[in-house]
Structures are given as structure tokens and as C-alpha cells.
Specification:
Elements: H1 2-15, E1 30-38, E2 44-52, E3 58-62, E4 68-74, E5 78-82, E6 94-98, E7 103-110, E8 124-131, E9 137-144
Length: 145
Amino acid sequence: MRTWTIIMAVFLCSLITLPGCDSLGPSQDLKFLADYQKNPDGTITFILTIRNEGSKTLDLVSATSQIYDIEVYQEPGILVWNWAYGRAFLTIITTLTLQPGEQKIYRENWEVRSNQGDPLPPGTYKVRASLVTDPSASYQFELTI
């Protein structure tokens, strides 16, 4: 029980900004971009870029081992697929540290199927990629299949 209390105290302290301390605004030093490429086999590869554009080290903190998620919506706002669906994440505080100018690129393949495994029909879909960290960020775009 004591270990759990210490872990929660550390996590909560990381969320509090004290007067006089440096704080990171939603768009200050963190740059988050999402893009995609259509592959010859009909799949889609999502490309997520996380970049520190500041002059200080940037820590992205998550309450689990998950750093990001990708969601695909069909009109009118119906979630048909998300990357995290069916995945298990460790319940452990995870920190992604980026040095000034450093970036991390993640690539995730989507087979253009719903979370239930059904093929999706051609059409326009809305994609929302998000960092599930503190600080957080998201990026949205449309994708035509």
C-alpha cells in the first residue's frame, strides 16, 4: 500500500505546476504531427511525429505504457477503429524524454477494418491521433479510402 501511495504522489506532483517553475503550454515546445501513406496492399500506415522544438528537455508523462492512440471515425462521428482497441498496457508511469530538437517517429499499420474485423467500405473517414500524455496533443485529418 505504501508503494502505491508513493507512486500516486509522484504522479500527482508531476501534474502540478508551482509558481516560479517552468511550465509547458499546449503548443509551446511540443510539436505533434500525424500523417498517413496508402500502401500497395490496400493497408494504411499512420505516421506520428513527436518533436521537442524548445531549448529544454521535454518529458511526456503517461499513467500507463501507452503514449498515443489513433482513432478512425465514420460520419457522423461513429468510432469504427482505434489503435488501442484490444491491446493491453502496463499500469506504470511512463516518461518519454525528448532532448531539444529531438523527435520520435511512430508508424502503425491499419488493415482498413473495423475493431470487429469487418472490412470498411470506400469513403471519407476522420482520423484523430492523440498523445495520451501530460502534456497532451492531438491532430485531426480526413482520409479517403
